[in-house]
UniProtKB/TrEMBL annotation:
Pfam families: Thy1 (PF02511). Coiled coil: none annotated. It comes from the Bacteria. The keyword Manganese does not apply. Gene3D superfamilies: 3.30.1360.170. The lineage of its organism: Bacteria, Pseudomonadati, Aquificota, Aquificia, Aquificales. This is FAD-dependent thymidylate synthase.
Length: 361
């Protein structure tokens, strides 16, 4: 296949660790410091085994966080000729490189072709691995073992509040990888509409929601609303009923203990409390959490189905990557004053982090 002949696995070596961070983000509730010290990220052997498992599952999306550019004038001209019609064979090599670069850009989703660099094409490790699998499944699986040869540590370039710039390529159209935490799923629902970017988000299928929290908008925190304190009693009674049912469930004691302890602490916190609108948000979230726990531990419902009851405002973590041009497109649109407060804040953080690296948006 063309991609596997133009690029080699070594071309992606500097950015392969970002794929491991993206993948571990999907399956972990830990913060960035935790992930950077996770052996499946920090150890090249463990990382290779972990990525091999993902490769076996054909979990290609995480490999989009690794990216590389190639100037096709540096490629053997005979190789270029193999992918050109006979009428183009007598063209100068540079013109052939332009045609092949444009061809890849037109046929590979989320590759990067820019007429300003007409002989250059950018592709992700995902493109490389998908083509390698079609070419030779044995070589495809061997590629993950070879990833252990590359020991490039992840050194974040900067952090502002929720957002960390964990990787940056500045050649040609560049490439940036961000780790964003302590944001709501409401915000990430807006974020993933920017389909030119790549995402790896904390999974509610595989990560327990027992200790998660609700992101509450500043407008709710600031609002003074007169509410009857009796509302608290209704919530507390429901939660206590659910707790009693969970206590009788046939489930591992250590799992039930954590859930019941959380419920007890929550009930204690809200005893004799003067009710605010923020409290109603929190109470509703915890009621949904109680139904989630009831479904999992009593109903034996899989977490992937029980999560349907959870609010969109639940905290999440996401890795975002893309070429600088598409990152700039996102920042321009979401720093607009009409953008919602949470995504606008993240976009401004990304803008400032790039500015610190000499990249103006």
């Amino acid at each position: 296949m063309l991609i596997t002949q133009i690029f080699s696995l070594e071309d992606f070596k500097d950015t392969i660790p970002f794929t491991a961070i993206g993948a571990r983000t999907c399956y972990s509730s830990g913060d960035l410091d935790y992930l950077l010290n996770d052996p499946r990220v920090s150890s090249r052997e463990e990382r290779a085994r972990f990525l091999s498992k993902l490769g076996n599952y054909k979990h290609f999306s995480v490999f989009a966080h690794s990216f590389a550019y190639k100037d096709l004038t540096q490629v053997d001209e005979n190789l270029l000729n193999q992918y050109l019609s006979p009428s183009f064979i007598d063209l100068p090599k540079e013109k052939k490189a332009e045609i092949i670069a444009a061809k890849i850009g037109a046929t590979k989703f989320k590759s990067q072709y820019n007429p300003e660099f007409p002989t250059v094409i950018g592709v992700s490790l995902r493109h490389y691995l998908e083509d390698l699998l079609l070419e030779d499944e044995k070589k495809y699986m061997e590629a993950f073992s070879k990833m252990a040869d590359f020991d490039i540590p992840v050194k974040p370039a900067g952090r502002i509040e929720n957002t960390t710039l964990i990787g940056l390529i500045t050649d040609y159209d560049g490439y940036a990888v961000f780790f964003i935490d302590n944001v709501s799923r409401t915000m990430t629902h807006q974020l993933v509409r920017h389909t030119a970017l790549n995402y790896s988000q904390r999974s509610q299928r595989y990560v327990r929601e027992d200790q998660n929290v609700l992101i509450i908008p500043p407008s709710v925190k600031e609002k003074n609303v007169n509410l009857p304190d009796s509302i608290i009693e209704y919530y507390i009674k429901l939660i206590q009923h659910y707790k009693s049912t969970i206590e009788e469930a046939e489930a591992k004691d250590e799992l039930k203990k954590g859930v019941i302890s959380r419920m007890d602490n929550f009930v204690q916190e809200f005893k004799d409390k003067k009710l605010s609108l923020q409290d109603v948000f929190t109470l509703t979230d915890q009621l949904c959490e109680a139904v989630y726990d009831l479904s999992v531990y009593v109903g034996k419902i899989k977490r992937e189905d029980a999560r349907f009851i959870l609010p969109h405002g639940r905290k999440t973590t996401i890795v975002v990557s893309g070429t600088i041009s598409w990152i700039k497109d996102f920042i321009t649109k979401r720093t607009d004053p009409h953008a919602q407060w949470e995504i606008q804040s993240v976009a401004n953080q990304m803008k400032q982090l790039l500015k610190e690296q000499g990249i103006d948006v």
